[in-house]
Design goal:
The chain has a domain of about 200 residues: NAD(P)-binding Rossmann-like Domain (Rossmann fold, 3-Layer(aba) Sandwich), CATH 3.40.50. It is α/β, with parallel strands linked by helices and about 325 residues long. The structure holds NADP nicotinamide-adenine-dinucleotide phosphate. NADP nicotinamide-adenine-dinucleotide phosphate binds next to α1. The site of NADP nicotinamide-adenine-dinucleotide phosphate has 20 residues, from α1.
């Protein structure tokens, strides 16, 4: 039987890097699309046999090139996403126009499936540009191609993430940490290997279309997440509730930076719990039960942020 060719957009991202390993280990042929082939060649790790991973450089989403790639693919997976806008309208372009184009082409070229990554907890966030653009993308995919699978994960963590490791660095450097909305916003962190397992299984999902909310095994407030990270890096820091006006002012300042710590839109989104809406099936309903717990998993890589590193043992422990 001819092996399926998977056309992967956003291959160099946190999920993409991990998904490529899983796919290539299982002998899928992958066409990985990136804006910068040199960066991709440096970042991507694979178990693929020669010829099973092809890197394609694509800028500005040239339609004729996308069509050429679609002709060869059985399944298209879209992992492209952004957390903040560099230019006005970037959210719409990346989260709505692009998935609309890809799903339209997937339909035109009769692909078996279009798998797309959206986000959890965005249904009520109608004052966040990020959330509105992601929801619009979902709507347009549903209109364009019936054979879609839309995956809506909570926050994803791993040693190569931009979340737990970022907070480990911040908490190591700062004497105190602000808690927006009193740190009460809820999340359901899921380890990247668990989300990759779900996406991988979706390739063989027998149904025509599906929207799937994906959560980890625990629901945790933002404060609890920060407390877990502090325990893991063995540091004590003052956690203080930051008044909204001050938070807004700091976000206004941060978003001037090229890689902002917090933007006004992210602050808006943080108001809403990042938990299942109940409007869709979720990974638990389908029997995908993530076992990796946040506190235990981050302990496996937090030594990079501990004073003295991995092998530092307190003197009294050594003398026991
Ligand atoms: N990570 C999470 O916690 C999380 C949670 C919920 C939802 N999601 C969603 O899951 C998807 C994948 O997440 P991820 O964490 O793997 O993302 P990521 O690490 O930020 O990577 C996203 C990829 O998108 C591509 N990209 C970024 N800006 C682009 C642009 N302007 N034009 C074209 N390509 C661009 C990049 O590929 P190149 O640089 O190679 O071109 C990058 O590798 C995204 O849609 C994200 O919104 C993620």
């Amino acid at each position: 039987m001819k092996q399926k060719e998977i056309l992967l957009f956003g291959a160099t991202g946190q999920i993409g890097r991990n998904l490529i390993r899983k796919l290539s280990k299982n002998n899928y042929k992958i066409i990985a699309v990136t804006r910068n082939i040199h960066k991709a060649g440096y970042i991507l790790k694979t178990q693929a046999n020669p010829g099973y991973l092809e890197l394609v450089e694509l800028n500005n989403f040239e339609i004729n090139k996308i069509e050429e790639l679609m002709k060869r693919a059985s399944i298209c997976i879209n992992l492209i996403g952004i957390l903040f806008e560099k230019k006005k309208n970037d959210f719409n372009l990346i989260h709505s126009d692009l998935p609309a184009l890809l799903s339209k082409k997937a339909n035109e070229f009769k692909l078996e499936k279009f798998i797309h990554l959206s986000a959890l907890g965005i249904e009520k966030a109608n004052d966040s540009k990020y959330a509105l653009s992601k929801l619009d993308g979902e709507k347009r995919i549903k209109e364009n191609f019936n054979k879609h699978i839309i995956i809506k994960p909570s926050i994803i963590y791993s040693i190569d993430d931009n979340f737990s490791t970022k907070f480990m660095s911040l908490l190591s450097a700062l004497p105190m940490m602000p808690l927006y909305y009193n740190g009460k916003t809820k999340f359901s962190p899921i380890h990247v290997s668990d989300i990759v397992e779900i996406i991988f299984n979706m390739i063989k999902y027998p149904g025509e279309n599906l929207v799937l909310e994906c959560m980890g095994p625990e629901e945790m407030t933002f404060k609890k997440i920060i407390q877990n990270i502090l325990i893991s890096i063995d540091k004590k820091r003052i956690l203080f509730p930051m008044p909204y006006v001050l938070a807004k002012l700091s976000a206004k300042f941060f978003q001037l930076l090229p890689n902002p710590l917090l933007t006004e839109d992210q602050l808006t989104l943080l108001k809403y719990d990042n938990c299942k809406s109940g409007n869709y099936k979720n990974n638990f309903d389908l029997g995908y039960i993530p076992k990796k717990k946040f506190g235990e998993e981050i302990n496996k890589y937090s030594f990079n942020w501990k004073s003295g590193g991995q092998f530092n043992v307190k003197l009294q422990d050594k003398l026991k």
